[in-house]
Amino acid sequence: MTPFQLPEDKIIAILSTGLITMEGQIPFGSNFVFLVSLGHENCTTRAVYKPQKGEVPLWDFPADTLANREAVAYLLSKALGWSFVPPTVIREDGPFGRGSFQLFIPHNPQLNYFTFPEKIKRKLRPAAVFDLVVNNADRKGSHILTGTKGEIWLIDHGICFHKTPKLRTVIWDFIGETIPDNIIHDLKKLIKRLAPEEYLTHTIRSLISFNEFSALVYRIEEIIRNPIFPERGGDSRPFPFPLV
Fold first, then answer.
1. pTM for this prediction
2. How high is the pLDDT of residue 211?
C-alpha cells in the first residue's frame, strides 16, 4: 500500500503526461514555484512545478540543476522504501520549460518542525538519516510536512547532492545516538541498487554529475560503517537560513 489516494504508478503517469493548467505562483522562497493541476484519463491532481528558468543562480551549485535534484531525492526515497518525498518527475514541456513536477501534499501550513508535538519529532530519525544521505544544505522547518493521515513528508530538495559536505538542517535531535538497525538495513539494500550496472544508477547519473553520484555512494557507505547520528559540524554552518 502507498500513502496516496491513487496508485503511485498512476500518479507518476499523471505527473509525466497530464495536461497542465496553471493555478498560480507560490510566493515563498528564492526561486519561481507554481501550483498547477494536471488532468489525465479522467483523473486530476495538483502538483508543484519548479521550472529551471526560475532558479536563482547559486555560487556553489551548477546552474539549472535544482529541478534534477528534486527528482533524485524522490528516486532515493522510493528506493529506500521510505516514501518521504512526494512523487516527482522531470518534464520538458512545462509552461515555462523544463522543470520538476511534484505531487502537491495537502497540509496545515501552520505545522512545521518547530510546532510539531514531541511524538512527531521522535519519528524523524529516518528523515535525519535521509538528509545525511542526500547532503541536504537546506532542511528548513517548513520543509517537513504532516499529511492528512499524520504521515511525514519531506519537500524542497533542490539544494542537495553537492560533492562536498554541506549539511544544514533543523533536525539535530539525535546527536550521538546509534542509527536504528532497520534504517541501516534499508541503506545496505540501497547501496546494492547503486551498483554501476543498475537501472537506478543510470537514471540518477543522468540527473547529477559523476562526482556528485560518487559522493552520494560514499556517504551511504560511511553511514553503514559508522551508524551514529553525527555532531553538528565544527566551523561549518549547521543550520539553514531562515530556519522556517
1. 0.95
2. 98
